[in-house]
């Protein structure tokens, strides 16, 4: 499937620019891409390459990626995951990294502005000095050339050479080192210094020819062959002997070195400043984070049952106030927990003692009640009916006493499983047969849906039967005489059993309350089946003892569904259930309701 998708995608990318709205070619292409029928080297119209080649390249790229990844050491591959976990868990790291990043951006911006300002200042100072030197040179040249009236080329050439190499080049200047190039019409230039005359740009010469005093930053070439940056200032000269061009070339090596030094200095100082700010952020954050970490560790130890753990209070600052408040909270929690533990211990002991103490008188009362119940035919109708009621209430009392004893075992954490491999279908059928009479009295029928094959699981059969009996009796009691549906489904890891009724259902929030002890959805209703109010609570404990789940779902007027999920193998914990908690009919009704709401909104908007 992956290869087919790659071929189809590659084909569309190849022919996309070539279609240009051609419907007769786009239709076969779309059909071929939709069908995925690329069995060999199929070239799609308009594509210069076969679709198979794209798939081959994609497969080769994946193999190359896997090969390269396998050659990377494991600790290097796990480094991004470790950094991600460290980033999420360490507040100190996040604060330090954020401080370094923010300060780095600020230092970078300030450094760039500072370097630009210094560079601009240096170049402007160089430019002003260069202009001043050029103007002084113009004065000297014009004064010297004004006395040259001999048109003899040789005499003029000697005068220009002496003027360039002696009078102008020997002058000191505030602009630093410079070279001079002086050129007359239709003659070779005269140069002083080690800068070649060819360094003058053509556009600068043209501007000077037009009679302008111009300047330009340009690369310059030295007579030794090296190159560099320079400032060139050119000016025209009009004299009786003809027109001349004077160029001052100022190398910028010193300025370039100065600017480079400034950049390195700013970079070094900025880096040290950012690292210093990061170290300060780490130290400052540690002073705040460390007490928080100590509080978290102390809270974990408190949660683990070490109620004597406390934080150390140092100083009188906010952190000391936090530690003091935490210790006060821990003291209060310790007192409350110990009080609750004592109350719970007394309650468990009372329940256990009362349950056991009631066993003896109940046995005696049961024996007398059995005698009366067996002889009820010889009594008057009123006495006979009283004997029957006494028998029924004793049965209910014995059931309540048995449930209290079972609850006391769970509270004392002494309940154990007697697990063995069992076919849950047989248990389900037995429970359905046993509760059939109760369902008939309520006018309900039990519909079961069991797999054809055995559903084997390592369970305590007695406890599972008790869970299923409680669920069925609860469904019959609240089913309003409607059918009760039982479904079972298993997979390799878990087995799920759902019991569905179509009675009054559950209101919002009641699905979590149904497992509370003695809780009833409607206290005003009569309990016709003689339940004790502990059945679902005991069933939940039985399911948890197996490592399974017991969930409830319900909607007002739509009934309720209980789902029991048990692991197939003993000792394992359920991670997923083969059956959903929401019934299929309820899910379908909800989908239809949403669709109808959408239709109503569309109609209302129209």
Task: Provide a descriptive summary of the structure in words.
The chain is of the alpha+beta class and 606 residues long. The chain has 16 helices and 12 strands. Helix 1 packs antiparallel against helix 2, helix 1 packs across helix 3 and helix 9 packs parallel to helix 10.
**Strands of the largest sheet, in order across it?**
2-1-5-4-3
Helix content: 55-70%
Secondary-structure element series: HHHHHHHEEHEEEHHHEHHEEHEEHEEH
Oligomer: single chain
**Alpha-beta classification:** alpha+beta
The tally of helices reads 16
Low-confidence stretches at least 5 residues in length (pLDDT < 50)?
1-48, 524-530
- First CA to last CA: what distance? 43 Å
Beta content comes to 5-15%
Described by strand count, sense and barrel closure, the largest sheet is: 5 strands, antiparallel
Average pLDDT level: 77
Q: What is the radius of gyration computed over CA atoms, rounded to a whole number of angstroms?
A: 49 Å
List how many beta strands DSSP finds: 12
Shape: elongated
